[in-house]
Write a structure and sequence with these properties.
By secondary structure, the protein is α/β, with parallel strands linked by helices. It has helices at residues 43-50, 120-142, 160-171, 186-192, 200-204, 224-232, 256-260, 275-288, 293-296, 306-314, and strands at 2-9, 15-22, 32-41, 66-74, 84-88, 103-106, 111-113, 152-154, 176-180, 194-199, 215-220, 234-242, 264-267, 298-301, 321-324. It has ten helices and 15 strands. The protein is globular, with a radius of gyration of 20 Å. The two termini are 15 Å apart.
């Protein structure tokens, strides 16, 4: 028997989260059985656990869109017992049982071998948030944004994706400007490498179709009015990697930045990212994320604390990354 956080739906349609004892027979029929060493808490996990939106459609569900651990047994020749693996995306924790469990089953194609230089703890401090941040950095690099072209803006910078994006960009030599709505995160962001802090209020203000050029590139995690202003402020040939909609999925903008300044808006998806690009991003994370990041952007909680911390992340009260240890 092992423990897992299980979501059920009450008669009033509210989501109920409870730590339960399960057996391997309770798990879905997939190819690889994994002993979960760590998971993590992402914004989407917070939505699932608190029942916000329609993240979970089928109950019961074990949430947790990330996991890392060691293979117990495998019906696939891609993995064998003892292999260290990472899983992010593919609808795990939403459509398929996820990482908030001491054991989990997964398709072999969902897994990524643990890169040299990482372990389960480090991989889950990174998690989907850090993986997404790395994909955003790679997207800007592929768009031709280089450190000598000017500052790169990160919105929602104190969150999980934003924190690791700031850290990575700074480590790679970019001048980083960070947008945050919390004054108490300013020193934290400067410690990660941000040289300039902008307020959420300033960046949320209504914008003209074009504003003064300020940014060579941007990582946007929030959408809505902030993304509209970011686009209006982009330099000629600038690029924005958009990966989130924490503020809004709507975008009230014009074609003028794209036509008159040759700006590109590039979507960055981590859920269905192809295996080859996944492996490349994890190798980059192992190489490019400084060792100090693993201590400055994380805290650790157990399964029993997940409901409380999920409420915090939905209230915008979580700074950086939250590591989940299902074995606490």
């Amino acid at each position: 028997m092992f423990k897992a956080l299980v979501l059920d739906q009450a008669e009033d349609k509210k989501t109920v989260a409870e730590v339960k004892e399960l057996s391997v027979d309770d798990l879905p029929k997939q190819e690889v059985l994994v002993a979960v060493e760590y998971s993590s808490l992402n914004y989407k996990d917070g939505m699932a656990v608190t029942g916000t939106g329609k993240i979970i459609r089928n109950f019961p569900m074990v949430p947790g869109i990330d996991l890392a651990g060691k293979v117990i047994e495998s019906d696939s020749d891609k993995y064998k017992a003892g292999d260290s693996v990472i899983l992010t995306g593919w609808g795990v924790g939403e459509r398929y049982w996820g990482g908030y469990s001491q054991q989990a089953k997964a398709k072999a194609d969902w897994l990524v071998p643990m890169p040299t230089g990482l372990d389960s703890r480090k991989a889950m401090i990174i998690g989907t948030a850090g993986f997404t941040a790395m994909l955003c950095v790679m997207t800007l690099e592929e768009a031709g944004v280089t450190p000598d072209q000017g500052p790169v803006l990160v919105t929602g910078a104190a969150g999980g994706v934003g924190s690791i994006a700031v850290t990575l960009l700074s480590k790679l030599g970019y001048e980083v400007a960070a947008v945050t709505g919390r004054e108490n995160t300013h020193e934290y962001l400067k410690g990660l490498g941000a040289s300039q802090i902008l307020s959420r209020e300033e960046m949320s203000a209504d914008t003209r179709p074009l504003e003064s050029q300020r940014w060579a590139g941007a990582v946007d995690t929030v959408g809505g009015n902030i993304l509209a202003r970011v686009l209006a402020e982009m330099d000629y040939n600038g690029a924005v990697a958009a990966c989130g909609l924490a503020s809004s999925f709507k975008l009230n903008t014009t074609v003028m930045p794209f036509i008159l300044r040759n700006v590109s808006l590039r979507g960055t998806d981590s859920v269905s990212c192809p295996p080859e690009r996944r492996a490349q991003a994890w190798q980059r994370l192992a190489a490019d994320l400084p060792e100090s990041a693993y201590e400055t952007i994380s805290r650790t909680v157990g399964l029993d604390q997940l409901v409380e911390v999920s409420q915090e992340i939905m209230a915008g009260q979580v700074q950086g990354r939250v590591l989940v240890d299902p074995n606490l």
